[in-house]
Amino acid sequence: MRSLLTIITVLLFYLPISAETFVMCVGIADYLDPKVEDLDKTENDAADISSFFRKGTTNVVTLYGRNATKNNILTALKRYSDKTQSGDKIIFYFSGHGYPGGFCPYDMTRLSEGLTYSEVVGVLKSSKATERIIFADACNSGAIRHKKKTENPEPGNVMFFLSSRGSERSIESKMMRNGFFTRNLLRGLGGCADIDRNLKITASELFRYVSNGVKYDSRDAQHPVMWGNFDDDMVIVEYKRR
Fold first, then answer.
1. What is the pLDDT at residue 100?
2. Residue 74: is its pLDDT beyond 70?
Protein backbone atom coordinates (compact mmCIF):
# COMPACT_ATOMS: atom_id res chain seq x y z
CA MET A 1 0.00 0.00 0.00
CA ARG A 2 1.32 3.45 -0.88
CA SER A 3 2.04 5.83 1.96
CA LEU A 4 -0.11 8.93 2.51
CA LEU A 5 2.82 11.08 1.41
CA THR A 6 2.81 9.30 -1.95
CA ILE A 7 -0.95 9.57 -2.33
CA ILE A 8 -0.94 13.28 -1.58
CA THR A 9 1.30 13.99 -4.57
CA VAL A 10 -1.68 13.35 -6.88
CA LEU A 11 -3.89 15.74 -4.93
CA LEU A 12 -4.31 19.46 -5.35
CA PHE A 13 -4.45 21.76 -2.35
CA TYR A 14 -7.30 24.18 -2.76
CA LEU A 15 -9.50 26.58 -0.85
CA PRO A 16 -13.21 26.83 -1.74
CA ILE A 17 -13.91 29.66 -4.21
CA SER A 18 -17.00 30.70 -2.27
CA ALA A 19 -14.78 32.14 0.46
CA GLU A 20 -11.32 33.68 0.75
CA THR A 21 -8.40 32.78 2.98
CA PHE A 22 -6.05 35.51 4.19
CA VAL A 23 -2.67 34.51 5.62
CA MET A 24 -0.07 36.65 7.35
CA CYS A 25 3.29 35.12 8.29
CA VAL A 26 6.02 36.63 10.46
CA GLY A 27 9.54 35.24 10.86
CA ILE A 28 12.27 36.92 12.91
CA ALA A 29 15.77 35.48 13.31
CA ASP A 30 17.85 38.54 14.32
CA TYR A 31 16.55 41.17 16.72
CA LEU A 32 17.29 44.86 17.11
CA ASP A 33 18.37 44.36 20.71
CA PRO A 34 21.90 42.80 20.60
CA LYS A 35 21.23 41.08 23.94
CA VAL A 36 18.52 38.92 22.36
CA GLU A 37 19.70 35.49 21.22
CA ASP A 38 19.59 35.02 17.44
CA LEU A 39 17.52 32.21 15.97
CA ASP A 40 18.35 30.01 12.96
CA LYS A 41 15.14 28.56 11.54
CA THR A 42 12.43 31.15 12.11
CA GLU A 43 12.61 32.95 8.77
CA ASN A 44 12.69 29.58 6.99
CA ASP A 45 9.57 28.69 8.96
CA ALA A 46 7.66 31.78 7.83
CA ALA A 47 8.84 31.38 4.22
CA ASP A 48 7.74 27.74 4.07
CA ILE A 49 4.35 28.36 5.65
CA SER A 50 3.81 31.23 3.18
CA SER A 51 4.79 29.00 0.25
CA PHE A 52 2.39 26.32 1.39
CA PHE A 53 -0.63 28.62 1.57
CA ARG A 54 0.23 30.30 -1.74
CA LYS A 55 -0.72 26.99 -3.36
CA GLY A 56 -4.32 27.77 -2.44
CA THR A 57 -4.61 31.56 -2.18
CA THR A 58 -2.96 34.75 -3.41
CA ASN A 59 -3.83 36.51 -0.16
CA VAL A 60 -0.52 35.88 1.62
CA VAL A 61 1.81 38.49 3.11
CA THR A 62 5.08 37.76 4.90
CA LEU A 63 7.22 39.99 7.12
CA TYR A 64 10.83 39.08 7.94
CA GLY A 65 13.42 40.40 10.35
CA ARG A 66 13.73 44.18 10.56
CA ASN A 67 10.45 44.64 8.68
CA ALA A 68 8.58 42.76 11.40
CA THR A 69 8.22 45.65 13.83
CA LYS A 70 5.24 45.76 16.12
CA ASN A 71 3.64 48.58 14.15
CA ASN A 72 4.22 46.87 10.79
CA ILE A 73 2.76 43.59 12.03
CA LEU A 74 -0.39 45.17 13.45
CA THR A 75 -0.84 47.47 10.44
CA ALA A 76 -0.56 44.61 7.93
CA LEU A 77 -2.81 42.34 9.98
CA LYS A 78 -5.44 45.08 10.30
CA ARG A 79 -5.32 45.71 6.55
CA TYR A 80 -6.00 42.03 5.90
CA SER A 81 -8.63 41.88 8.60
CA ASP A 82 -10.54 44.74 6.99
CA LYS A 83 -10.73 42.82 3.69
CA THR A 84 -12.48 39.77 5.12
CA GLN A 85 -16.11 38.86 4.67
CA SER A 86 -18.39 36.36 6.36
CA GLY A 87 -17.29 32.82 5.52
CA ASP A 88 -13.64 33.81 5.07
CA LYS A 89 -10.68 32.45 7.02
CA ILE A 90 -7.85 34.57 8.41
CA ILE A 91 -4.60 33.00 9.63
CA PHE A 92 -1.77 34.62 11.58
CA TYR A 93 1.52 32.68 11.79
CA PHE A 94 4.48 33.76 13.93
CA SER A 95 7.95 32.23 14.32
CA GLY A 96 10.40 33.97 16.62
CA HIS A 97 10.95 34.68 20.28
CA GLY A 98 7.97 34.69 22.59
CA TYR A 99 7.25 35.47 26.21
CA PRO A 100 4.36 34.58 28.54
CA GLY A 101 1.66 36.83 27.14
CA GLY A 102 2.86 37.61 23.65
CA PHE A 103 5.27 37.61 20.74
CA CYS A 104 8.57 39.48 20.43
CA PRO A 105 8.59 41.80 17.38
CA TYR A 106 11.90 42.85 15.84
CA ASP A 107 12.04 46.21 17.64
CA MET A 108 11.17 44.93 21.12
CA THR A 109 13.75 46.05 23.70
CA ARG A 110 11.62 45.81 26.83
CA LEU A 111 8.52 43.90 27.90
CA SER A 112 6.17 46.84 27.39
CA GLU A 113 7.06 46.83 23.67
CA GLY A 114 5.94 43.25 23.07
CA LEU A 115 3.15 42.23 20.74
CA THR A 116 0.57 40.87 23.15
CA TYR A 117 -1.85 38.06 22.41
CA SER A 118 -4.67 40.46 23.26
CA GLU A 119 -3.54 42.89 20.54
CA VAL A 120 -3.45 40.17 17.89
CA VAL A 121 -6.76 38.69 19.00
CA GLY A 122 -8.32 42.15 19.04
CA VAL A 123 -7.47 42.67 15.37
CA LEU A 124 -8.67 39.21 14.37
CA LYS A 125 -11.94 39.63 16.27
CA SER A 126 -12.59 42.91 14.46
CA SER A 127 -12.59 41.02 11.15
CA LYS A 128 -15.72 39.65 9.50
CA ALA A 129 -14.01 36.30 8.94
CA THR A 130 -15.84 33.26 10.20
CA GLU A 131 -12.68 31.35 11.10
CA ARG A 132 -9.67 32.94 12.81
CA ILE A 133 -6.49 30.95 13.44
CA ILE A 134 -3.18 31.71 15.16
CA PHE A 135 -0.17 29.43 14.67
CA ALA A 136 2.82 30.31 16.87
CA ASP A 137 6.26 28.70 16.89
CA ALA A 138 7.63 30.59 19.89
CA CYS A 139 8.94 29.79 23.35
CA ASN A 140 6.47 30.00 26.24
CA SER A 141 3.58 30.41 23.80
CA GLY A 142 1.30 28.06 25.72
CA ALA A 143 1.39 30.35 28.74
CA ILE A 144 -1.70 32.08 27.37
CA ARG A 145 -3.80 29.43 29.11
CA HIS A 146 -2.36 30.20 32.52
CA LYS A 147 -2.40 33.96 32.75
CA LYS A 148 -4.81 35.63 35.14
CA LYS A 149 -8.35 35.75 33.82
CA THR A 150 -8.27 39.54 33.72
CA GLU A 151 -5.16 39.40 31.49
CA ASN A 152 -6.30 36.59 29.22
CA PRO A 153 -7.53 37.66 25.79
CA GLU A 154 -11.10 36.53 25.19
CA PRO A 155 -10.64 34.03 22.38
CA GLY A 156 -13.81 34.93 20.49
CA ASN A 157 -13.89 32.53 17.56
CA VAL A 158 -10.10 32.20 17.48
CA MET A 159 -8.11 28.98 17.44
CA PHE A 160 -4.66 29.15 19.00
CA PHE A 161 -2.23 26.41 17.96
CA LEU A 162 0.90 27.04 19.98
CA SER A 163 4.22 25.27 19.74
CA SER A 164 4.95 24.68 23.42
CA ARG A 165 3.66 24.82 26.96
CA GLY A 166 4.16 28.00 28.94
CA SER A 167 7.28 26.70 30.66
CA GLU A 168 8.91 25.21 27.56
CA ARG A 169 11.24 26.34 24.80
CA SER A 170 10.35 25.79 21.16
CA ILE A 171 13.21 23.69 19.86
CA GLU A 172 15.28 24.01 16.68
CA SER A 173 17.79 21.48 15.35
CA LYS A 174 20.75 22.29 13.11
CA MET A 175 19.92 19.11 11.21
CA MET A 176 16.50 20.42 10.11
CA ARG A 177 15.35 23.35 7.97
CA ASN A 178 12.48 24.20 10.33
CA GLY A 179 11.76 24.20 14.03
CA PHE A 180 10.14 21.03 15.38
CA PHE A 181 6.66 22.58 15.52
CA THR A 182 6.69 24.11 12.04
CA ARG A 183 8.27 20.99 10.53
CA ASN A 184 5.37 18.87 11.77
CA LEU A 185 2.81 21.57 11.03
CA LEU A 186 3.90 21.63 7.37
CA ARG A 187 3.76 17.85 7.18
CA GLY A 188 0.36 17.76 8.79
CA LEU A 189 -1.11 20.46 6.55
CA GLY A 190 0.53 18.77 3.58
CA GLY A 191 -1.63 15.67 4.04
CA CYS A 192 -0.11 13.55 6.78
CA ALA A 193 -2.72 14.66 9.32
CA ASP A 194 -5.60 13.41 7.15
CA ILE A 195 -6.09 10.25 9.19
CA ASP A 196 -9.52 9.36 7.78
CA ARG A 197 -8.39 10.04 4.17
CA ASN A 198 -11.39 12.27 3.40
CA LEU A 199 -9.14 14.99 1.91
CA LYS A 200 -10.03 17.39 4.74
CA ILE A 201 -7.69 18.21 7.60
CA THR A 202 -9.55 19.28 10.70
CA ALA A 203 -8.30 21.09 13.78
CA SER A 204 -8.39 17.91 15.87
CA GLU A 205 -6.56 15.87 13.23
CA LEU A 206 -3.90 18.54 12.87
CA PHE A 207 -3.35 18.78 16.62
CA ARG A 208 -3.08 15.03 17.03
CA TYR A 209 -0.52 14.68 14.23
CA VAL A 210 1.61 17.72 15.12
CA SER A 211 1.56 17.03 18.85
CA ASN A 212 2.73 13.45 18.40
CA GLY A 213 5.42 14.51 15.94
CA VAL A 214 6.81 17.29 18.12
CA LYS A 215 6.88 15.09 21.21
CA TYR A 216 8.75 12.44 19.24
CA ASP A 217 11.26 14.86 17.69
CA SER A 218 11.94 16.59 21.01
CA ARG A 219 12.11 13.37 23.04
CA ASP A 220 9.09 14.55 25.02
CA ALA A 221 10.64 17.91 25.90
CA GLN A 222 8.17 20.04 23.90
CA HIS A 223 4.38 19.78 23.93
CA PRO A 224 2.16 21.82 21.56
CA VAL A 225 -1.03 23.38 22.89
CA MET A 226 -4.32 24.03 21.12
CA TRP A 227 -6.70 26.45 22.81
CA GLY A 228 -9.63 28.75 22.12
CA ASN A 229 -13.27 28.79 21.10
CA PHE A 230 -13.57 26.72 17.92
CA ASP A 231 -15.06 23.53 16.52
CA ASP A 232 -12.75 20.50 16.68
CA ASP A 233 -14.06 19.56 13.23
CA MET A 234 -13.20 22.95 11.71
CA VAL A 235 -11.51 22.28 8.37
CA ILE A 236 -8.08 23.93 8.13
CA VAL A 237 -7.25 22.84 4.56
CA GLU A 238 -8.90 20.71 1.89
CA TYR A 239 -7.59 18.72 -1.03
CA LYS A 240 -9.16 17.47 -4.22
CA ARG A 241 -7.91 14.85 -6.65
CA ARG A 242 -6.22 16.18 -9.77
1. 82
2. yes
